[in-house]
Design goal:
With 406 residues, the protein is an all-alpha fold. It is built from 16 helices and no strands. Helix 3 runs antiparallel to helix 4.
Length: 406
Amino acid sequence: MWWEVTVDRAEVAIETGALRSRGAGRIFRALRNRNYRLFWTGSFLSNIGTWMQSVAQGWLVLQLSNSPFWLGFVGFAGSLPVLVFSLIGGVVADLFDRRRLLLLTQTGLMLLALGLGTLTELRIVTVGHIVTIALFSGVMTALTLPTYQAIVRDLVGPEDLMNAIALNSIQFNLSRVIGPTLAGFAVGAIGVAGCFYLNAVSFLALIFALRRIRLPQMSAPPKTNSLWEGFLEGVAYVRAQGRILRLLAIVAAISLFGLPYITLLPVFARDILHCGATGLGYLMAASGLGAVLGAVVLARLGDFRSKGTLAVLGGITFGLSTFGFALSRTFGLSLFFLFVDGWAMVSSAAVVNTLLQTHVSSHVRGRVMSLYTLSFMGLMPVGNLMMGSLAEWIGAPWALAIGGLI
């Protein structure tokens, strides 16, 4: 078909063009793998659409309710299933074909985005509809994330795993910058419903990539009598591996006590640094830029030694820079600390991700990565609630400073 010829030509162009440079070839080494190149490109385009929907959805909630509470509740509804169902998602990722499972969840997310766009276009959408769709999207995401993490090693093998995980961080953080920017233009040009439709279309990129991916034949996973038995097997495996528990503790501490700085940024922009909405944008961009550059450095390093040392140092640096930002009263210094925050967070989390996938057996990789998802993303709502309550009591700077030290 014509689109297959186009993709094949693009793949040849990538191999013979951009990757010809030695430096670029080292940074983007995992993209030499056709399967991973398709997966990375599809994920990048899909994530841009997801960020566009996130911005448009928040704008729509404010239009319908004029309530910050409902804005926060919709976000909570979308993230709560990650806390509740990610462990189940890990069991499913080990017991079923990962590529087909991703095809199923991405199709489900596409239909939910299409449904939200239709309700908005017909002017019958309510906050209740948005909460319900956010909740179902969260369930799909909870099932997706462990599989998404576990399939990377299937795509590239152990030798390019560190590079592939770093490249995933690059595309995710770039989409975090590009998606909201495009949404700002799209809401004015084609309306909120148009953003939801564009997100639905963006899922086709990843679905198309997954259909073209051909994975090597894997050994059949051990049979279990139930999801519960599979879950207990995964828990027993992790409990027997002290190294895994220590790695998970690093990302859990970052998620609970450090990452809530993102939620508290509007308070710092308005009340502490007095830089307004424009300054808030710069503060968020500084963190995103640090995350992108941190991922680029990891991609350049590749399969280096002393990964455990970097994971620990990254976590410590993240805590200290969060503490420094909490006490800063200068806009420029605050930008610097947030840049370091983004860099250190990605460095630590990506290395922990690599170590987990390197040192666990293939038949339990999905379950271990579901614990990583739970520790890193599932605990974020808990951390936001905890640090937000502490900030209400003693003020945002002191709350964040204590979190950084912890």
